[in-house]
Structure formats: structure tokens, C-alpha cells
Specification:
This protein is mainly beta and 671 residues long. 10% of the residues lie in helices and 49% in strands. It has eight helices and 33 strands.
Length: 671
């Protein structure tokens, strides 16, 4: 076993240094200002945090990390920690186990929990959202969690929806696909009961799980998943949506342009049972075995599914089938086309699989992961099928099998995973993919190089690795922190299939507190070295003139001022130059933001932001052009009670519409 892992280390290091030197493994764009969900939401809305980083941080907050029980991979997922720093604080040879600096304790506090072995504790959280233009009662969501007695924990998510579409079905006579008109419904989409023992745990209900480098199986969004987590998460309500879910011709004139607050939404993970057992199989060697089974109703966008009754197989192969056409009965003999993109519960998915990991040390392991799934279309809808390019492969059953390994020595950690996806698609059958990471870390700095390969036909709807084009690719990252003085994060990424290149760099100066400037640069080029004919050009000039295959250059500057322990002010401005594929004229975008945060100890918090965003400064009718002012507040009058509120004023600069007013309320109790 040690000899096999040593060979993997030599191969990985050779590939890693071949890609250049290395790059940073810090998974998040920023490490400061992550103190609560409202702060995370603000960073995601203004583009500071990517969707993947926001999902991972929200998952960490919701699950909580007990540093006395968490694995090395889970601790590394906390913001601002390198592998070397994790080993120094929680490694077997650490002389100051679990000791955090004052700055680390403050930064990580929102993600840390202490699991009590005795007594019952829990929390309940009620949320609602509404707007000034609503003609319906506001949507609501309730999250409950409790546990602590004999290792048991339970939780659920319940929502009150007012615009829930009915189940999809096919009319016997016309063979048309219809759904019942939107209506109110009390839903319990997520629930779980979990027992955690010393060397085993079992969960029944909804959960997320992942392993290795996320290539074969991962629905957790975490950078280094190691098993399953209970799932009771809900997405925050975003902007308003059209009140009428039908095509424009089917809407009444009085409500055609009306807007309403959408219902709460959530990710559809797995629902069933999952279990893990762990035990020693030799001197210092541990074996962990995880298995799971799931039966879940899956929602789909209409663009992902086609009607096999009206679209013959020859048209399916050519890609000539139109998106699914669905009708809504609005009167006894009248139907109108549905405009809404997402259809709930279109098919049922049976899934199951597992993972076995042999661990020689906290830094050395080999694991095997495999899973399979089968979609089942309800009898009421007849013959439906996934369209080419959908998240799911067509034809029937699908799944993936993969092997992952890790080895670490000194400052170097190697991670590698190979995966084979399989499916039943015509002329398909699956494909291969591989991912390798080499990480070199130290105190306050970390380098990483990632090499990847994605073969033709590799479709994995339950894989968590970023979706990449076919062929070879590489990513280099580097992060450097100098105590409280400054932080640098850089990344370069490219692929050799469709030739793409992107790079970003951000430097934050943290001293003195009253003036902390930052500068961020982003570059993206698609189709490097490929000539693209200008759209709309005449035939004679097509041979001479070429246009961009897609590019974007962006600069963002920021100044943060910490006036005191209670008050901080932020100002940000940025601009971007982009050229769309096939165009010769560049598009200029601009955005600016001014914000302030005030804290009154642990009792109250207040924040305000004014943001302007304009996509294409030369054209005022096509893309986003708005001013948004947001005020959020939190108050903790009692140790067991927290009240939060958020108000957003949004003005669309493209037209003459009145400003939109959006409200969000949140009440959380702890016991």
C-alpha cells in the first residue's frame, strides 16, 4: 500500500511541476466580512463571491464545524486556512492543538460549533419575503433542527408556496402535456433524522454527500467532501418575477406586466438513507465504508426535456426537436401555453451507491466510489426523454465509478481522481475524466496546480467538479497572506479543447485599518488563436475581416476603512471591456458601490449599500441597467432570539417603471 501511494506521489509531482510551478488552493475569493448569511448574500450579489464559493460557505455555516471532531479536509474548507496551518493546529504532532489566534477566532466564529454530548439543543428559523407590488400573500419557510440526546439529531424544511404548479400529465384525447394552474401548497421538501456514534452514523431523510476530488460524486459544494451531510437548506428569495406564468398572449391585459415575489426555492439533493462505518483493519490503517440509497422527485427546465411521442428518434439525433410544449387549462375548453421554465417533479430518480476509503494516515488514503441511477417517467406523462445537452444523459440508467488517492509529505500534498461515467444514451455509453492537484503550503501561503481531462461523453449530473469543456485543461492558483498586513490571490486557468484562457488577481492591503485598498484584475479569452467571421458581414469581407471569439477584461478597485471596532465603510468601482463572439465592437460595462456597516457589540448590527450597475454603457434598453439601495439589520435582544430584516429599493434605468420595493424578514430562536 505504501509503495503504491509512493508511486502516485512521484507521478503527481512530475505532472504538477510540468504544468509550471504551482498555484494557490485557497477556495474562496475573500476571507473577511463573512460574519453572517446577510453578509454572504451581499458579497454574492455584488459579484465578490462566486456561486460555488457562496454555496460552500453557506453549507459550512448550516452544518457547523466542530474542530475537535472534524477531519483535515473539513477544517481546510474553513476560510483562510492552508493545509500547513490545519496540520499545525489539529495534526497528531501539534503542540498547540486547536489554539487559534485572535484574528482566526474572530474570522472562523460564524462556522464553528461545539457538539454537546448531553442535553438537547436546537434552533428554529422562520423566513418570509414580500414586495410592494405583491397581489398574493407572502411566501414563508421554516427550518427546524434539534439534537444532542444519545447522538440523535433531527431537522426539516417546510415552505408555504403560492405559485406551485401541478404535476405534469398528458391529456388522453389530444395527447398534449398539461399542468394544473399555479396554486397554494404546504410543502415539506426536506427532513432528516441522524444518529452519530463513535465509529458509525446513519441518516434517514434528505442529505448531500461527496468524496475525493468531487469528480465521481459530490452534491455538497464543499472543497474537500468526506461523506454525507444533512440537508435542510433553502435559497434566499431573489428579485421579482412575472406574476403571469403563461405566454404573453394568455395573460390578462391588467396583469400582463405585473410582478410578484417568487416562492422559496431549494436544491434537490438525495432523499433516502445513508450510513457510514469506520474501523481499524491493521496497524494504523483505517477503513471507512459509506453506502446510500435514494428516491427523489426531480424538477427540470422545459429546455432539458423533449416529447418522444411527437419527436422521432431521427430528429432527436439531429437536435431538431423543440423544447417541451406545456399547456395550462384556464377555462373548460381553453388552454394557454406555459411560459415558466421549471417544471416540478417531472421524473422520479432511483439512485444508490457507496464509497470505501482506506486511510493510512490523515494525509494518505485510497478510495473507490461508485453509484448508479435510473430515471422513471410517470405513466401520466408517457414517453419523455432528456434533450441533448441536458444535465442528465438520455436513454435510461446512468452512473459513474471512480478511484481517488491522496498522499502528503512535508509541505506537499498530492490529490488525484479518475472517473468513468456510463449511460444508456444512443451512440453514447459514457466517457472518462481525471483530475490531479498538487498543493505546496506553508504558514500564510499556498501554491496549487491542477491538471484535468474530460473525455467525450462524460456526463455526470451528480458530480461536483466544475463543468469544463472536453479535452485537457490546467489551473494554477497562489495565495499569500502576511499576517494582518496584506493578502494576494492569483489564478490562471486554460483548456486545450475549445481554447480558453482566463486569469485573475486580487491584492488586499489590510494596514492601516482606516485605509485598506484592494485591486482586482480579471481576463478571459475564448477561442484563442481562432478566427471568427463577423456576424452580419457581407461575403466579400468574411474572407478578410475576423472578429472576436469572445473576450472580457475587468478592473475593480475598492477602499475599505475600519473607523472603529463598530463602524466600517466600503467604496468600490469597476469597469469591464468585453467583446461578444462574432462581434467587432467592444461593449463597456460599469459598476460602483458604497456601503457601511455598524455593529453594537453582539446585540445589534446595521448595514446599508447603494449600488449602480450598467451592462453596456452605450445601449440602454437591452441589458441590466439599475440602481439598488439595500438596508439590512439584525437585533439579538435575548441570547435565544435574533431578528433580521432586509429592505431593497431597486430602480430599473432602462424604462419608466416605478422603483421596486423588496422586503425580507427572518426570526431565529435557539434552545
Amino acid at each position: 500500500m505504501h509503495r503504491f501511494l509512493g508511486v502516485l506521489l512521484q507521478v503527481g509531482l512530475g505532472c504538477g511541476w510540468l504544468g509550471a510551478w504551482a498555484a494557490s488552493a485557497a477556495p474562496y475569493e475573500v476571507e473577511q466580512g463573512l460574519e453572517d448569511e446577510q453578509a454572504l448574500l451581499a458579497l454574492w450579489e455584488d459579484g465578490t463571491l462566486s456561486s460555488e464559493s457562496w454555496a460552500a460557505l453557506m453549507s459550512l455555516r448550516r452544518a457547523g464545524v466542530d474542530v475537535e471532531r472534524a477531519s483535515r479536509g473539513v477544517l481546510y474548507a474553513l476560510p483562510g486556512l492552508t493545509y500547513s496551518e490545519v496540520d499545525a493546529r489539529w495534526g497528531p504532532a501539534s503542540s498547540r492543538r486547536g489554539v487559534l489566534t485572535e484574528e482566526e477566532a474572530r474570522r472562523l466564529a460564524p462556522f464553528l460549533v461545539k457538539r454537546e454530548s448531553e442535553g438537547v439543543s436546537g434552533e428554529a428559523r422562520w423566513m418570509t419575503a414580500f414586495s410592494g407590488s405583491d397581489s398574493l400573500a407572502p411566501p414563508m419557510a421554516l427550518q427546524l433542527r434539534a439534537g444532542g440526546l444519545a447522538g440523535l439529531r433531527v431537522g426539516l424544511l417546510a415552505t408555504w408556496a403560492r405559485r406551485r404548479l401541478g404535476d405534469l400529465r398528458r391529456e388522453p384525447g389530444s395527447r398534449a402535456l398539461v399542468v394544473e394552474a399555479p396554486g397554494t401548497a404546504l410543502l415539506v421538501p426536506k427532513f432528516h433524522g441522524q444518529w452519530m456514534g463513535t465509529n458509525a452514523q446513519v441518516l434517514v431523510g434528505t442529505y448531500r454527500l461527496g468524496f475525493g476530488q468531487r469528480l465521481t460524486l459530490d452534491t455538497t459544494s464543499l472543497p474537500a467532501p468526506e461523506g454525507f451531510l444533512p440537508d435542510d437548506g433553502v435559497k434566499p428569495v431573489g428579485g421579482l418575477e412575472r406574476a403571469c406564468l403563461l405566454v404573453e398572449a394568455g395573460c390578462e391585459a391588467a396583469t400582463r406586466d405585473a410582478e410578484v415575489t417568487p416562492d422559496f426555492r431549494w436544491d434537490e439533493g438525495f432523499r433516502g438513507v445513508a450510513g457510514t462505518v469506520r474501523g481499524a483493519v491493521g496497524d494504523g490503517v483505517m477503513l471507512t465504508v459509506t453506502g446510500f440509497g435514494s428516491y427523489q422527485r426531480r424538477s427540470l427546465q422545459r429546455s432539458e426535456v423533449l416529447d418522444a411521442v411527437t419527436c422521432p428518434p431521427a430528429s432527436v439525433e439531429k437536435g431538431d426537436c423543440e423544447a417541451l410544449e406545456v399547456f395550462v387549462p384556464v377555462a373548460r375548453s381553453r388552454r394557454e401555453k406555459l411560459r415558466a421554465r421549471t417544471l416540478p417533479g417531472v421524473f422520479r430518480e432511483w439512485a444508490g451507491g457507496g464509497n470505501a476509503t482506506l486511510e493510512v494516515s490523515p494525509r494518505a488514503r485510497v478510495g473507490v466510489t461508485g453509484w448508479g441511477a435510473r430515471p422513471v417517467w410517470p405513466d401520466a406523462v408517457g414517453r419523455l426523454e432528456f434533450r441533448p445537452g441536458a444535465r442528465y444523459p438520455a436513454g435510461g440508467a446512468f452512473g459513474a465509478v471512480g478511484v481517488d488517492a491522496a498522499w502528503g509529505v512535508g509541505p506537499v500534498d498530492l490529490f488525484v481522481e479518475g472517473s468513468r461515467a456510463f449511460d444508456s444514451a444512443p451512440r453514447g455509453g459514457g466517457g472518462w475524466a481525471a483530475l490531479q492537484r498538487t498543493v505546496v503550503s506553508g504558514a500564510g501561503r499556498e501554491w496549487e496546480v491542477s491538471l484535468r481531462y474530460r473525455g467525450r461523453g462524460f456526463i455526470n449530473p451528480h458530480g461536483g467538479a466544475p463543468s469544463e469543456p472536453e479535452g485537457l485543461g490546467a489551473r494554477l492558483r497562489y495565495v499569500h497572506r502576511q499576517a494582518e498586513a496584506w493578502r494576494f490571490r492569483g489564478q490562471v486557468e486554460g483548456s486545450a479543447g475549445p481554447r480558453r484562457l482566463s486569469a485573475s488577481a486580487r491584492v488586499d492591503w489590510r494596514a492601516p485599518p482606516w485605509l485598506q485598498p484592494s485591486l482586482q484584475l480579471k481576463v478571459r479569452e475564448s477561442g484563442v488563436g481562432v478566427d471568427v467571421a463577423c456576424s452580419g458581414a457581407d461575403v466579400e469581407q468574411d474572407a478578410m475581416d475576423t472578429c472576436s471569439s469572445g473576450s472580457r477584461y475587468e478592473v475593480v478597485t475598492q477602499a475599505r476603512s475600519v473607523l472603529s471596532e463598530s463602524v466600517e465603510v466600503t467604496a468600490r468601482a469597476g469597469g469591464a471591456r468585453g467583446v461578444e463572439r462574432g462581434q467587432a465592437v467592444a461593449r463597456w460595462d460599469g459598476h460602483a458601490l458604497v456601503g457601511m456597516r455598524v455593529r453594537a457589540g453582539a446585540v445589534a448590527r446595521f448595514g446599508a449599500r447603494v449600488q449602480w450597475r450598467d451592462e453596456d454603457l452605450s445601449e440602454h434598453t437591452r441589458l441590466l441597467r439599475e440602481v439598488r439601495a439595500t438596508v439590512d439589520a439584525g437585533w439579538t435582544p435575548l441570547d435565544a432570539l435574533t431578528l433580521r430584516g432586509r429592505y431593497a429599493w431597486v430602480l430599473d434605468l432602462k424604462g419608466q417603471d416605478a422603483p421596486r420595493h423588496l422586503f425580507h424578514l427572518d426570526v431565529e430562536t435557539r434552545f
